[in-house]
Amino acid sequence: KFKDNILMQDSVRDAFMVALKSLGYSANTTNEEEIKEAKELLIKQKPLVQAYVIDQVRDKMIGGEAALGVIYSGEMLYIQNEVKDLGLDYSLEYVIPEEGTNLWLDSWVIPANAPNKENAEKWINFLCRPDIAKKNFEYITYPTPNKGAFDLLDPELQNNKAVFPDVDSLKSSEVYKYLGDEVDSRYNEAWKEVKSN
């Protein structure tokens, strides 16, 4: 039904996560047979895929060039705003698969040998101020974990499940783990096979 209207992430772990989760496996599997099964599923899916993309998924979805796309959650708010601002006659919905997806977080860190540790701490404290965290959220469109910033958002935005999903919808989701060089090589080789078939 959606042949040539599907956008997949051009990313080893993100593509394999989709296949592994749809098969009921962990996104962090090290099992060779499960990786092989996911590879075969991705190869089988490939004729249906319009393109493997990263940042281009945003523009393609806004332009109505595809019906389905695997996309990072923060991109969805940007897309929703663009579709509305452009007055386009369609809307886009963000869905978290029942099978789960990957969970992620970005962090500010200070290296142990930082020469200006006190200033780095001041910078992080500044970024954690609710008014500043809200401005950062509005700029990057990725969800804020800052409760004070969240409380400053319009209720419509607070209730946008694409940006702030219910915890229950994430119950089958996982954070990517580092699986070691040997397993990384296994995934990379499998991805090469997917891309070359």
Can you summarize this structure?
The chain is mainly alpha-helical and 197 residues long.
3D structure, described in words:
- This protein is mainly alpha-helical and 197 residues long.
- It has a single domain (6-196), classed as Periplasmic binding protein-like II (D-Maltodextrin-Binding Protein, domain 2), CATH 3.40.190.10.
- Helix content is 47%, strand content 8%.
- A 3-stranded parallel sheet has the order 2-1-3, sandwiched between helices. A two-stranded parallel ribbon has the order 4-5.
- Helix 1 crosses helix 2 (32-45), helix 2 (32-45) packs parallel to helix 9 (181-196) and helix 3 (56-62) packs parallel to helix 4 (73-85).
- The longest helix is centred in the C-terminal third of the chain and has 16 residues, at 181-196.
- It is globular and about 50 Å long.
Please state the average pLDDT score.
94
User: What is the CATH homology-level superfamily?
Assistant: Periplasmic binding protein-like II
Query: If strands are numbered along the chain, what order do they take across the biggest sheet?
Result: 2-1-3
Low-confidence stretches at least 5 residues in length (pLDDT < 50)?
A: none
Cα radius of gyration in angstroms: 19 Å
Shape: globular
Oligomer: single chain
Largest sheet: 3 strands, parallel
Measured distance between first and last alpha carbons: 22 Å
- The total count of strands amounts to 5
Q: What is the architecture at the second tier of CATH?
A: 3-Layer(aba) Sandwich
CATH topology descriptor:
D-Maltodextrin-Binding Protein, domain 2
| Count of alpha and pi helical runs | 9
**Portion in beta strands:** 5-15%
Which structural class matches the secondary elements?
mainly alpha
CATH class: Alpha Beta
Order of helices and strands: EHHEHEHEHHHHEH
Q: How many structural domains can be distinguished in the coordinates?
A: 1
